[in-house]
Structure of Methyltransferase:
Amino acid sequence: MGERRVGVAMAGGNPVEGKQQPDGFYSTPQDVSWAFLDWLERTGIVPGIVAPGTPFHECCCGDGRMAKIVSMRHPVVATDLVDRGYGDAHGPACDVTKLVSLRSPVVMTNPPFFLADAMLERLLAQDFLMVAMLLKTTHFNTKGRIPGFRGAPPAYNLGLTWRPDFRGLGRPTMNCNWFVWIRGNTDLPRYDVLPRPVLPPGIMPKPARPAKPARPAKPAALQSAKAPPAEVLLEAA
C-alpha cells in the first residue's frame, strides 16, 4: 500500500474497496438505519420532537435500502436526483442543493459525501424539525467547516460502534457517525454511541461476498516439464 493509501486508511477512508462511485452513491446497510431509529425512540425524540405519523424524507433514497427500513416505523417520502428504481420522485426537482421547500420537516439521509455541505446548507435554511445525516466521523475535522459548525451546530453526534459495510465486501474501513440537527438548537453537540443492533429475522441477510477468481491454468509446456523420478537421476549418476 502506497503512502497516500495508508494515509487515507488511517483517516477512516476507503482505499481497499475499489474505485469510488462516480456520483457518490453507496447503499446504506440496514443496521445503520435501524440503530438510529432505535436511538430516536430511546431518547424520546420520537415522539417528543417528531410526532408520530410525521413522514421521514429520505432525499437520497438510491435503491431504497434506508427508506425501506424507515418505512417499518414511520411514513416515508423517498426522492433522489438519480432514478435507481426506487422512490416517489426523481430528477432536477429533487436536487437538494437547489431546494426551496421541504417535502417533510424531518429529513434522514446518507448523502454523497462531496455534496453533504451544499445539501445541509439548503436543508437548514428551511423550516425543519430534524435533519439527520450519516457522514464520515471526521466530517467536521477541517478548518473550512468551522463557520458552518459554529453557525448551525448539530444537536447530536452519534458514533457508530462498528464500520458500515457499504459494499458488502466484508472488509469495511470507514468510520461513520450520525449527525442530527434539531430546530432551535444553538448548543454544541451532545455525544452518544450507537450499539450495533440485532435486527429482526429476514431484514438483513448476510451479504454475499464476490466469488474468488479461478486460478489460471498452467501452460501445457510447464505441465509436461516435470522433474524426473529420483531413480532416473540415480541411474544417470
Remarks:
- The helical segments are 3-10, 30-43, 45-48, 65-70, 116-124, 146-151, 220-224, 230-236.
